[in-house]
Amino acid sequence: MDIIICGGGEIGGSVAEAMVKRGDNVTVIDTCENRLAYLEEHYDIAVLHGGASSAETLRTAGAGNADAVIAATGIDEVNLVCTTVAASLGAGRTLARVNHSLYLSDNSDVDYARLFSVDRLFSPDRATARAIAARLSNPGALAVERFARGTVEMQSFVVDAAGSAADCKLRDVPLPRGARVLAIRRGDKGRLATADTRMKPGDRITVVVDTDRVSELDGIFTPHRPRRRDVAIAGGSPTAVWVCRALQHRGMRIRLFETDMERAEDLAGKLDWVSVIHADPTAPEIFEDQNITEVDAFLALGEDDMNLLSSALAKRGEVPLVIAMTHRPGLKPLMEQLQVTEVFNPRDAAREDIVHFISDAPLERLGPTLASGQVELFRIRVGPSSPLAEQPLRQLGPDAGVVVAVAEDESERGHVPGPDDVLAPGRHVLLACEAGREKHLRKLFGL
Question: How far is CA 133 from CA 112, 130, 152, 368, 374, in A?
């Protein structure tokens, strides 16, 4: 594929590296000659010095014939103009990085993506927040993956004797609508889950669930949580704001600590479900006065120095779950030495979203495998000749060796489908199947 990246900074450079590794032809446009020289020296790419929003520059770069133009500068308006011009020149697809939540709000009466002829708006802050919210959503989760632009989560649990599913057949487990068990591992053996699969204590099961239904899994596979979880957030960054929004309806008590009074007052007005506290979370006395060591989870989402110090205090206070964000990859090993539970980098989260969108392959194997390698995950497009096209999901019988986990809409948002959902041609689904059945999948989905 021919890919043009406008802006070769932290985000653009990372995406360029990922695209080159995929075998794509990449051109990077930037106004900084030193940045371009570095990228040209380290990666097999073409570079062009110039303004990304200039029609002349984009035409010279070949935007009219490009499969995708990605605008990844740090200025929203430049990115929006860039993608609008690229679309008018004939670019196949366009993606624009935006930082301001105005452009991303689901409640806005203006569709900015459509207004600016952008196929996808992406935000490193929101992508990071989605990943963090998924990690926080259930303390019993052993592994968490995000799918369908963060609208669906996949979680792994060890069945506990205190959960309501213990010793029950799957058909008798009261799963909420929008949740499905995909696979089960018992010891070193695994398989796809069926209606007759019995959940025994110690089994590791993999569940896919709509993000707004995650809290309804409480008490099914793990013991019921008798109280709301207490979460402390250090720093009022845009990522922190997106995390608060993602956690709004998940039954959590959230306290956010911000050192700047004006910013704290602004956040208190925007996030009325959050206790915003004007205080320095790197001060030991604040930890003691605010009982931060008693929280269930501590999120360090401010500047890198604050995140490093506050994470160290949280670990010293034996907070069970400490998650930190860093913009400097070099700090990640240090945070890991502090035994921070998980470290997120907005660059990585944005790169994953972009590569996923650019791929858009009819059949894509996803990782990791489930149930000791006996179950694989695929993202596959429903072909018009598929025997499943325009048919309710119940037509896929129990002997097919396939479980459809997620159905995506035209914007790639998804939901866990029910038996009466119809599979639309041209749309993608996420499915789990027995290992080694790729040829069968191609035939089943008309590829």
Answer: 25, 5, 12, 20, 29
| Final residue belonging to a domain, choices 175, 195, 217 | 217
Query: Are 216 and 175 contacting, i.e. CB atoms less than 8 angstroms apart?
Result: no
> Of 60, 84, 79, which Cα lies nearest the Cα of 12?
79
Q: Give average pLDDT by consecutive 10-residue segment, the chain, 447 residues.
A: 94 93 93 94 94 94 94 94 94 92 70 82 90 71 58 86 94 92 91 91 92 84 80 96 88 93 95 95 92 94 94 93 91 89 89 80 78 87 89 79 85 83 88 87 88
- 16 with 73, same domain? yes
| DSSP-derived secondary structure for 43-65 | SS-EEEES-TT-HHHHHHHTGGG
End-to-end CA distance of the chain: 21
Residue 442, token pair as written in the block: 């191609």
Q: What's the CA gap between 58 and 320, in Å, rounded?
A: 50
Domain membership of residue 222 (yes or no) is no
Other C-beta atoms closer than 10 Å to the C-beta of 350 total 24
Last residue of some domain: 185, 217, 249? 217
Residue spans of beta strands (DSSP E) within 175-310:
179-186, 189-192, 198-199, 204-210, 229-234, 252-258, 275-278, 297-300
CA angle 126, 130, 135 (to 5 degrees): 145
Is the same domain home to 409 and 309?
Answer: no
Largest Cα span, the chain: 67
Same domain, 37 and 6: yes
Residues 290 and 180 in one domain: no
Range of the domain at 181: 128-217
Inter-CA distances, 371 with 183, 207, 368, 432, Å: 6, 12, 10, 11
In this structure, the strands spanning 321-325 and 297-300 are: parallel
